[in-house]
Amino acid sequence: MATATFARRLGAFVKSAAANKGSGWFGPHMAAASRAIVERIPLVDFILEIRDARIPMSSEYEHLRQFPSSLRRIIVLNKMDLADRSKTQEWMRYFQEHNKICYGINSHNKDNVKEFLNFLQARVRELKKIDQSSYTTTIMLVGIPNVGKSALANSLHQVGRISAAEGKAEAFNSESTARGDERYQQFEGVNPFFFSLCVLHTRSIEKIGSHPNIYVLDTPGVLPPENLDVEVGAKLALTGAIEDYLVGECELARYFLAILNLSNEYKHWANLLGEEDDRSSVDYKANPLGSSELDMRRRKQYATDHTQDFVVRDVRRTLFEAVSSFEGNLENDEEVVRLINAQFLALRDAFRLPLESGENLCYRVSIKLLNLYRTGRLGHYTLDSVPRNAQYPTTI
Ligand SMILES: Nc1nc2c(ncn2[C@@H]2O[C@H](COP(=O)(O)OP(=O)(O)O)[C@@H](O)[C@H]2O)c(=O)[nH]1
Ligand SMILES: [Mg+2]
Questions:
Q1: What share of the chain is helix, strand, coil (3-state, %, to 5)?
Q2: For position 186, what pLDDT does the model report?
Q3: pLDDT for 142-184, tens place per residue?
Q4: CA 82 to ligand 1: nearest atom
Q5: Best mutation site among 30, 107, 149, 203 for ligand 1, i.e. most ligand atoms within 8 A of its Cβ?
Q6: How many angstroms does the Cα of residue 286 sit away from the middle of ligand 1?
Q7: Which of 31, 99, 285, 379 gets the most CB atoms within 10 Å of its CB?
Q8: For the sheet containing 172-173, what is the strand order?
Q9: What phi and psi values does residue 377 have, to the nearest 5 degrees?
Q10: What structural domains and CATH numbers belong to the chain?
Q11: 118 CA distance to ligand 2 centroid (A)?
C-alpha cells in the first residue's frame, strides 16, 4: 500500500538521522536526562506516561519496560483532540483489557484537565488508604519528546492551584538545591532525597493539590534512537517527536498526503465544492498583489463571521477536488506520487504562495500543510491500529 511505502521512505530518513552521531536527536543532554529519570522512577508515587493519542503504541516510553507494570502507572493519551475519537476509545478499551490504567485528555482543555485532576486525586486517596505514611504524593510525568508533558504539567498546576498565595511561589525551577533555601520549605513533606535529585536534571516540580499535597514533576522527553522501527520512526516524525529538519519537511508532508488520500477525512469537505470559489472571479495568480486584495474583499464580505478561515477552507477544497477527481489507482505507488505532485502544485494557490517551483515550493507548501495538520485543521488521524487478536506485548 502506498502509505506504507511513504512511511518506509520517511522512516529511512529517521533511521539515518538516528545513526548520525553528533547531529542526531539523542545528544548528551537526552542521555543524562534519561538516566536521571530512570533513577527516580522507583522513588515517586505515580508515573504518568504521556503518550500521543494519535500514536498510542508508537509513542510508548521505552524505558518503562524495565519496570514491572503497576497500579501506580497511568498511561495518558494526550492530544486527544487531534486523534480519531472512535479509535481513541478503542485504544482505551484495549489498554484497560490489558489491565493498564489509561486516561485520554486534551491538555489545552480546562474542563478535561479538571476532570483528570479529580481522577488523580481519587487515585491518590486510594493510595493513602494503603500507605498511611505517605503524607505527600509525588507524580512524575515521563514520555518521548513533544507529547505534551509540559503542557499537561502547567495545566494541572493552573487548575490545581489552591489559593493565589500558594500558587505564586510553587513553581520551583532547578538552580538551587540548597536545603536552606527558603523556597524548599514549600515542598512540605517531599522526600528531601527525591527533591534534591529532581532539581538536578529534570525540569520543574510543581504543587497541584493540597490535603493531600500533590506535586508533579515534569521531565525532558527521551527517545532512544536504537532499535527504532522504520514505520514507527515515520509516525514519530509526522507527529513531531523528532525535529522536522532532521528528516525533511517535504518528506513529512508527502507522507501526510499519502495518509489523507487514503482516509475518509477529506470526504467531510465535499460540501465546500458547492461554495462560490472567489478565485474564479479574480485571477490572483496573474497578479502577485491580487491575493492580498482578494483576501481584503473576502474579509469584507464575511466581516460578521470571525470564524471564517479562508486559507483552511481553500486547502480543504483543493485537497478534496484533487483526490475525488483522481482516476488513478490509490494502491499503486507511482500513481499516488503523481497525485501528490499535483496536490503540491494546487496547494501553492490555496496557500497563496508566489509562482515558483522545485525544492523551495515543496518546502513552503510543506511547512504550511504540516502546520494545519498538526493543529487539527485537516482532520483527525490515529496512525496506530489496535492489534487484532494479538497478545498485548508483555513489556508494555
Ligand atoms: N492540540 C493539542 N496540542 C497539545 C496538547 N498538549 C500539548 N500540545 C502542544 O504540543 C506541543 C508540545 O507540547 P509540550 O508540552 O512542549 O511537549 P513536551 O515536549 O512533551 O513537554 C506544544 O505545541 C503544545 O502546545 C493537546 O492536548 N492538544
Ligand atoms: Mg517539555
A1: 55, 10, 35
A2: 56
A3: 999 999 999 999 999 888 874 334 444 444 444 444 444 444 4
A4: 1
A5: 107
A6: 40
A7: 379
A8: 101-104, 73-78, 46-52, 136-142, 213-218, 204-209, 172-173
A9: -90, 0
A10: 27-218 (3.40.50.300), 230-374 (no CATH)
A11: 23
In the predicted model, is pLDDT for residue 278 greater than 70?
A: no
78 Cβ closer than 6 Å to some ligand 1 atom: yes
Which residue's CA is minimally distant from atom 12 of ligand 1? 146
pTM greater than the 0.90 cutoff = no
**The pLDDT of residue 310:** 87
Residue given cell 527533591 in the structure block: 195
Q: Is the pLDDT of residue 294 over 70?
A: no
Residue 219, ligand 1, Cβ within 6 A = no
Residues above pLDDT 90, as percent of the chain: 51
Q: Whose CA is nearest to atom 14 of ligand 1?
A: 148
H helix runs in the chain, sequence order? 2-19, 28-40, 85-97, 110-130, 149-160, 164-168, 192-201, 230-239, 244-247, 249-261, 278-281, 290-301, 310-324, 333-350, 359-374
